[in-house]
Amino acid sequence: MTEASALAKLLRPAIKNERVLAAIAAIPRDRFVPAGERGRAYENIALPIGSGQTISQPLVVARMLELLELRKSDRVLDVGTGSGYHAALLALLAGEVWTIERHDKLALEAQRAIRGLGIENVFFAIGDGSAGLPEHAPFDAINIAAATGASVAAAIADQLGAGGRLVAPVGVDGQRLTLMRRTAAGLQSTMLEPVRFVPLIVRED
């Protein structure tokens, strides 16, 4: 059993979506952490990756993927590339992934890691994640891997297509995973379990 497979087995009691668990088992998390952290790559913990950012706890990543209910035909926006681990998993579950990161160095390292695994359906952008990528909208699903503050920016939510799903950590004093769906009646939001993410920061340059 590979370490990635063992990680998927560890998450199985909390994650019911078999496609998500298969993706976790297929992607080597150690490729997405700094050399000094690789000994802890398969622990169920967040780890620092530089630039004041972290690679999220595997359980939280898997939970966000499960909430998105991804289909192989989906187009996904991933806000906050970070290490690239989340984007790599999204790539196995969806058809096309657009990922945006404000830190040039992290974006380049993520691209190297993802391309090194032979994954070709992830497209990279450097810029202000809070603006999303309107030129590539609409998206079937949007993953926001940074705390949005009191609410999800309308600029991002507006990029969600009909029937689309968005998941993000939302809140100021305490963050909660929040699932948003675009229905015929408009956006519907459901607040779920508490989480802790680094903030989504507007790029200033």
Description of the structure:
The chain is of the alpha/beta class. It has a single domain (3-195), classed as Vaccinia Virus protein VP39 (Rossmann fold, 3-Layer(aba) Sandwich). Helix content is 27%, strand content 29%. It has a seven-stranded mixed beta sheet, covered by helices on one side. A two-stranded antiparallel sheet has the order 1-2. Helix 6 links the parallel strand 6 (139-144) and strand 7. The longest helix is centred in the middle third of the chain and has 13 residues, at 104-116.
Strands, total number: 9
The low-confidence runs, each spanning 5 or more residues with pLDDT under 50, are none
Total number of domains: 1
CATH class: Alpha Beta
Task: Indicate the CATH architecture.
Answer: 3-Layer(aba) Sandwich
Report the sheet-strand fraction.
25-35%
Q: H/E element string?
A: HHEEHEHEHEEHEEE
User: Largest sheet at a glance?
Assistant: 7 strands, mixed
Q: What's the CATH H-level homologous superfamily?
A: Vaccinia Virus protein VP39
Quaternary status of these chains?
Answer: single chain
C-alpha Rg (nearest Å):
16 Å
Helix fraction bin: 25-40%
Describe, in short, the structure shown.
The protein is α/β, with parallel strands linked by helices and 205 residues long. 27% of the residues lie in helices and 29% in strands.
Keywords:
alpha/beta, about 200 residues, globular, Rossmann fold, two-stranded antiparallel sheet, seven-stranded mixed β-sheet, single chain
Give the helix/strand layout.
Elements: H1 3-11, H2 18-26, E1 47-50, E2 53-55, H3 58-68, E3 75-79, H4 85-93, E4 96-101, H5 104-116, E5 122-126, E6 139-144, H6 154-157, E7 160-170, E8 175-183, E9 186-195
Parallel strand pairs: 3-4, 3-6, 4-5, 6-7
Antiparallel strand pairs: 1-2, 7-8, 8-9
Helix pairs in contact: 1-2, 2-4
